[in-house]
Amino acid sequence: MFGICIVTFGSEDVIGACLEGLRRSEDQKFKVVIIDNASTDSTCGRVLTKAADAGWSHSDIALQPDASGATAGAKKKLTLLRSSRNLGYAGGVNRGLEALMTEADIRWFWVLNPDSEPMPSTIADYRHEAEAAGEFALMGGRTLYYEAPNAIQSDGGRVHPWTGICSNVNQGRLPQKVNPPAASAIDFISGANVVASRLFLERVGLMREDYFLFYEEVDWAKRRGNMPLVFCAEAVVLHHGGTAIGSGSINRRASGFANYFNYRNRLRFVWRFTPYAAPAAYFYSSAKIVHLLLLGAWREAVGAFRGLNQLQPPSEVYQRISWPPARHREGNQSP
What we know:
Layout: E1 2-8, H1 15-23, E2 30-37, H2 43-54, E3 58-63, E4 78-83, H3 88-101, E5 108-112, E6 116-118, H4 122-133, E7 138-145, E8 152-154, E9 157-159, E10 166-168, E11 193-197, H5 198-204, H6 216-222, E12 229-239, H7 256-273, H8 278-294, H9 298-308, H10 315-320
Parallel strand pairs: 1-2, 1-5, 2-4, 3-4, 7-12
Antiparallel strand pairs: 5-11, 6-12, 7-8, 7-11, 9-10
Helix pairs in contact: 1-2, 7-8, 7-9, 8-9
């Protein structure tokens, strides 16, 4: 069985389509845990309404930010865990995974963004590939742009060894015109659409939570050891990207909010895994900030500068989330 973990934050305009996509799934052998990171809009009401419309058994549980989600379990078809504080992306994912892992019949754990819409065959395609793959760490599918579904957003990702810059494989290319990558040729799977095996979670642990936003899935994949990644091109998901945080997309530049965490965590990731490359990563990122200034993108540049130098976030971060974030337990921290 699949366990599906979705973290929401101000997602009332997109979560309905995500859940509708799951309702239309040809394979209904799954349970959903949604962790809401203290949304101030109608996200939670939208979730419960869609669950009722789909005829799913569901529960609505208040989750204390420093507590494990495991006690809630995933006994219902859909479980909504409401956090009183924003736990960050990994914090939310981890509480959801803890809840799902209490169900012994769940073998695979699908982390899915709320602004994503799976195709009817996606779960069945993932299941077929997972059963054929045997032991694996993480699995990804073909993620397409929601705004331009004839263009690939990500076929997995690669990390530049000296700068820490992440790039999406086949980004912007036509799905029918390009071959999917070999799993051995990618470094990570996009966190918007990634399946973890139970064996991987038991051996490696949960996501690190000190990033708060961005690079969690890159770090996760880096810690997999000799467990392989798997890529399933048949499993297709449409993804808006950046609806809540303003990350860059096919037709927009990343916001200062997104830049703060992206530049901050890029350097943290490099220091953690390839510290010898930290000077190169720092100077490359500094050059990108200068480029933003030359474009007149002052707010974006300020966010990037403060993040790169590990300073307190700009005001727009404080305005949108509680800061500092709630503190919670970490997963296995070994590299």
